Amino acid sequence: MAKILIPLPSRDADPSEVAVSWQILRNDGHEIVFATPDGHPASADEMMLSGVGLDPWGWLPGLRQLRVVGLILRANGDARKAYAAMLKDTAFCAPLRWDELDAADYAGLLLPGGHRARGMREYLESPLLQGIVAAFFDAGKPVAAICHGVLLAARSRSKVNGKSVLFGKRTTTLTWAFEKKAWATARVTRFWDPYYYRTYNESADQPSGYMSVQQEVTRALADPADFKDVPRDAKDYARKTSGIARDSVKDDSPAFVVRDGNYVSARWPGDVHRFAREFSAMLGETRA
Predict the structure, then answer these.
(1) Torsions phi, psi for 32 (to 5 deg)
(2) Which DSSP string do the residues of 56-120 spell out, in sequence order?
(3) What is d(CA 142, CA 259) in angstroms, rounded to the nearest whole number?
(4) By the 8 A CB rule, do 247 and 277 touch?
(5) pLDDT computed for residue 113 by the predictor
(6) Residue 8: its pLDDT value, please?
(7) For the segment 254-276, what is each residue's pLDDT rounded down to a tens digit?
(8) I want to staple 108 with a disulfide (CB 3.0 to 4.6 A). Which of 92, 113, 142, 185 is the partner?
(9) Rounded CA separation 236/1 (Å)
């Protein structure tokens, strides 16, 4: 059907957002092309796969493998199975380099996220990727972005008007409520590395949350009201906003996804099944 580009950092992308998206799109008949900075296969954030290191004793070599909190916070079973399958995929094992990419070669673009600064900053700050993202938006091609992938889009400037490609778009992304909750958890469970869930931290003169994904994305929009979160009257509001419940193959009630024309966005790994299905449907519409 459609040829889809998924760019990735060398390491630390979220395994759920990459692998579940890959699996759903591939099962729907789409061709997936991966790209990394150097053309070597990417590796996801290992803590999000295993849960090892997410407990308060995770810094102790003799106790690291004992997981309690880690089993709750890691990727769920659907995502881990999808990731294991993706590791055997020919396209994943032989990615292109970022500097080889041309938006004209693809029908659509999917931008996964990930929070760990160690690996994600090269992805979020890459002028090469920002140029590719802008080319997709300027051409009106379908784009999907989830979690920090929305931040990459927000930083990408259109060659048409010089503004963020999200200027004038409605979008969601990782909410400050979710990011703050994860950060508060890490201050207890990873007290030796409390900023594990914060890709960017505020400076002393910035208010709390100023460098959060939600606030930076909102600053790129034409109107702050274009940032969308779950409405209070939404069905399954409690599940959608818990930060614990995740969608699955059979149940998308915890998910929240926003579509604006040929652009679809989502907040976090708990939205990924519905996110990928909506993007796949969009691809079918644009090719009809």
Answers:
(1) -110, 130
(2) TTTTSTTTTT--SHHHHHS--HHHHHHHHHHTT-HHHHSPEEGGG--GGG-SEEEE-----HHHH
(3) 11
(4) no
(5) 98
(6) 98
(7) 999 999 999 999 999 999 999 99
(8) 142
(9) 34
Tokens of 159: 């060659």
Please, is 10 exposed, middle or buried when counting C-beta atoms within 10 Å of its C-beta (0-12, 13-18, 19+)? middle
| CA gap 218, 213 in Å, rounded | 8
Nearest CA-CA partner of 112 in 143, 149, 81, 139? 149
Distances (CA, A) of 216 to 150, 236, 242: 10, 28, 22
Q: What pLDDT score does 288 carry?
A: 55
- Tell me the whole-structure pTM to 2 decimals: 0.97
In angstroms and rounded to an integer, the radius of gyration of the C-alpha atoms of the chain is 18
Contacts 24+ apart (CB under 8 A), 216-222: 216/151, 216/154, 217/150, 217/151, 217/154, 217/166, 217/171, 217/173, 220/154, 220/155, 220/164, 220/166, 220/167, 221/154, 221/164, 221/166, 221/167, 221/168, 221/169, 221/171, 222/167, 222/168
> ∠44-151-272 over CA atoms, to 5°?
55
CA pair distance 114, 146, nearest whole angstrom: 9
| Residue ranges in the chain modelled with pLDDT below 50 | none
Q: Which residue has the tokens 């869930």?
A: 197
pLDDT score at 287: 67
**pLDDT of res. 286:** 74
